[in-house]
Amino acid sequence: MARTGRSADDAERMPLVEHIRELRNRLMKAALAIIIGAALGFVFRNQVLHALETPVCSIKGVHGVGQKTAACPNGAIVYQGPTAQVSLSFKIAMYVGIVVASPVWLYQVWAFLAPGLYKKEKKYSLSFIGAAVPLFAAGVVVCYYLFPVIMQVLLTFLSGAGGSTLLDASQYMTFILQMMMVFGVSFVLPLVLVLFNFIGILSSKAMRKHWRVIVLVIFVFGAIAVPTGDPFGMTALAAPICVLYFAAVGVSELNDRRRARRRAAMPGANLSPDEATDLDLRPAPVEKASSLEDIL
Is the pTM of this model over 0.85? Predict the structure, then answer.
């Protein structure tokens, strides 16, 4: 009896142990993918660094105190300290590793959560990930091409007064990466509204009703997110988000109509809450047995 009780106890603990083991394996796979991506980022660190420096190094009228090179002719980027370039190289490599390995670790997260999801939720989550990646990338691209305008407005304040620009490389890289993150996440937010609609949390009617408030919030967010505060930068961020928001409203409207048609096709869909459906509760007729063998 003691052995039976111990076996039952082991059986109860086994699912938790398996979950922990699976979580460990998937975390190891995700970490390995990030390490491989970071190694690639370290190999191509100079190319990535040059691409990130281009928005500020290409600004005319800015006179920095850094070394003027072919890659940065205005000398706006300055490396402070003997280990600045080394630490910045590792930081860039880590960011590149996370981005390059994102399909792997996103899949590992989804694969760990998928067994606890319904079939419909699995389909929605995969569709969400598939649509979120290009939207996030689109936001990053918009930020990259808008960033020279942002930096020119910020840096020409000092240059117009006759001063020199001292822009620390580490601070600049952190700033541009944060801006890219803000733009990327902003482009994904309308997709979150579509996901809420498909789950049943948010209706398209509510999204249409409050569209004026949402548009105002988007432009206020654009004014806060773009540090220059100029109308061009604010509109460049807010306008695509507004377009994506109204696209999300359209997709949610189509989904609500499809859901309404399915409900209308269900039996008893037109009945009020106080009415009962017509159910045939009569027992089925019992056939008479011809002999004892038919019964057995």
Answer: no
